[in-house]
Amino acid sequence: MPRYERESKEELENLLRRFRRELSESGQLRDHRRKRFFVSRGEAMREKQRKAERRRRRREVRIKQQEVRRHRGR
């Protein structure tokens, strides 16, 4: 965990803002949340497939909406 020291005359709010920004940019918090619970390999694969299916469906809906807009414009 990185160490943050208060610069001279730096307000506590600015120190906290700087800490949060650097923590989010480093990705440490995201990794910690992801690894907080054990997930079996099979469960991880099922979740990955569900997300891929959702992306595919959303993409199809978007494409259909674009086609409808094109046909209305004619």
Write the layout of secondary structure elements.
Layout: H1 12-26, H2 28-34, H3 41-72
Number of strands: 0
Low-confidence stretches: none
Query: What do the pLDDT scores average to?
Result: 90
Structural domains: how many:
2
Q: What structural class results from the helix and strand content?
A: mainly alpha
Largest sheet data: none
Rg (C-alpha, Å): 22 Å
- Helical fraction: over 70%
- Distance between the ends: 59 Å
Envelope shape: flat
Output the helix-strand order: HHH
Strand content is under 5%
Number of helical stretches of at least 4 residues? 3
Describe the 3D structure.
- The protein is mainly alpha-helical.
- The protein has two domains: 1-37; 47-74.
- 73% of the residues lie in helices and 0% in strands.
- It has three helices and no strands.
- It has helices at 12-26, 28-34, 41-72.
- 0% of the residues are buried.
- The model has no long low-confidence stretch (mean pLDDT 90).
Name a few traits of the molecule.
flat; mainly alpha; 2 domains; 74 residues
Q: Quick gist of this model?
A:
This protein has helices at 12-26, 28-34, 41-72. By secondary structure, it is mainly α. The radius of gyration is 22 Å and the shape is flat.
